[in-house]
Amino acid sequence: MGTNLDELLGIQGLIISTYGPNEKFQIENLFVKFVFECLGLVNITDDVLTEISRSVTFKLVKILTEAKKVAHKSNRIKLTSSDIDNSLILCGFESLLLNEQVYNQNSLIRLLSNNRQNDIYFFYDDEVDIDDYLSNSRSKCKAQLDVGLKSHWLAISGAQPCIVENPINVPKSDLAKAKDSNEDLLPVSLHLQIFYKEVTEASIGTLEEKRKEALAALQRDPSVRYLVAPLCSFIYQGIRVNIASRNLAILIYIMRMVCSIIQNASIPPEVMEHHFHELIPSIMSCILSPEQCSKKFEENHWALRIYSAKLICNLCSNYEHFIPHLRSNVLHILIYTLKNILSQINIDEETFEITENGQSYDILDFPFGTHFGAIYTFILFPKDLVRDTFWPLLKHECLLFEALNFNLATIDHDNLKRDIGKTELQLANLLASILTQDELSDSPSLESIVGKYMTDKVYQARLAAQEKQVV
């Protein structure tokens, strides 16, 4: 080509730009332009290059992150090609390693196709001549790997030898002492056990003064770092039980406990990281749970969803440096929830009729709380990340709320209209934040993206935001 490829592709075939101490990177536009030119495409604008670069970088980082998780689950440190292939499948992309239907005859991998079952991939073993194997010419023939046996002494003259293969021989007297003694069984001191009991009871109790004192202790007391594990288990079990029993008040109290624990400066980030598998599902359940109270049209479950959304956003901001792509994982949960809701209903674009499994859909059964929580959480996250994640569902969401308002005209239900209005307002605010100024200023272009109904709602939300900034 007459051009140094290393100068174009940089280190390891990618041009990567590094920004600041957080080491955020993105594929440069020069590399994207080079790929377009190799494909015969020219005159690509800088805006298109930037958008494609941002999208490809996001997907590439996501694939590598999933591959690292696959390697970690397989108890391996080194990343292999199969990890990349599995991560592509997990991220919804086509497999690159085992998706070919025809292989080279010299390839180790063979394909056995069966119309009744899935394809089977296997390795052909080399045929071994038994005469060559029994002879002394080891260089010509190597034995296939098989189960190996190794002998060792279990006991010598009635005594077990102290070797690696045998378990440690603990005298029975020591085991009896360990059972009788309670000191080795206590994970924390008696003082911390009393502290844990008093704090948990006061945090979900009926007295507001004691609750404030308990939350203040969780936020400032240095000894809380030794109680993170039991506190997170208490929070996880409390959320699970009270969502099932629809106890809204206890759910709010527990979320205030989570907020206090996160704000405790004495808890190291590496300690909190080990308990995110209990905290994040608890917070996300308070955001996305369809029913959090027995009277969903009367009780204020919106406040819990808003509070939990702000809490998960602060959690991602504080620990994004220690846990990469924590925000991406949370957004993946949100977008999966919305996709699951939209996949259960069908909407006629002409008549706006909503059906489910061929039957008429009852609007009263629609999970407005889940929709509200997901959309409100989207608003709190960075715009560029939300735009890339939410964009595939944008038209479906706009069509859904246009159909809901069309069918709402035939229903006399004030509380239902209020719920639709709240969720619709958050959707309009989200669209006004992620759409560019060029898209918002061009009415025909905006109407082609979000529809005629939501175009008016987006302009109203934008005007309200501008008036709020002026005030």
Automatic annotation (TrEMBL):
<protein>
    <recommendedName>
        <fullName>Transcription initiation factor TFIID subunit 6</fullName>
    </recommendedName>
</protein>
<dbReference type="GO" id="GO:0005669">
    <property type="term" value="C:transcription factor TFIID complex"/>
</dbReference>
<dbReference type="GO" id="GO:0051123">
    <property type="term" value="P:RNA polymerase II preinitiation complex assembly"/>
</dbReference>
<dbReference type="Pfam" id="PF07571">
    <property type="entry name" value="TAF6_C"/>
</dbReference>
<dbReference type="GO" id="GO:0003713">
    <property type="term" value="F:transcription coactivator activity"/>
</dbReference>
<feature type="domain" description="TATA box binding protein associated factor (TAF) histone-like fold">
    <location>
        <begin position="27"/>
        <end position="88"/>
    </location>
</feature>
<dbReference type="GO" id="GO:0016251">
    <property type="term" value="F:RNA polymerase II general transcription initiation factor activity"/>
</dbReference>
<dbReference type="GO" id="GO:0046982">
    <property type="term" value="F:protein heterodimerization activity"/>
</dbReference>
<dbReference type="GO" id="GO:0003743">
    <property type="term" value="F:translation initiation factor activity"/>
</dbReference>
<dbReference type="InterPro" id="IPR046344">
    <property type="entry name" value="TAF6_C_sf"/>
</dbReference>
<dbReference type="InterPro" id="IPR037796">
    <property type="entry name" value="TAF6"/>
</dbReference>
<comment type="similarity">
    <text>Belongs to the TAF6 family.</text>
</comment>
<dbReference type="InterPro" id="IPR009072">
    <property type="entry name" value="Histone-fold"/>
</dbReference>
<dbReference type="GO" id="GO:0046695">
    <property type="term" value="C:SLIK (SAGA-like) complex"/>
</dbReference>
<keyword id="KW-0804">Transcription</keyword>
<dbReference type="InterPro" id="IPR004823">
    <property type="entry name" value="TAF_TATA-bd_Histone-like_dom"/>
</dbReference>
<keyword id="KW-0648">Protein biosynthesis</keyword>
<dbReference type="InterPro" id="IPR016024">
    <property type="entry name" value="ARM-type_fold"/>
</dbReference>
<keyword id="KW-0396">Initiation factor</keyword>
<dbReference type="GO" id="GO:0000124">
    <property type="term" value="C:SAGA complex"/>
</dbReference>
<keyword id="KW-0539">Nucleus</keyword>
<keyword id="KW-0805">Transcription regulation</keyword>
<dbReference type="InterPro" id="IPR011442">
    <property type="entry name" value="TAF6_C"/>
</dbReference>
<dbReference type="Pfam" id="PF02969">
    <property type="entry name" value="TAF"/>
</dbReference>
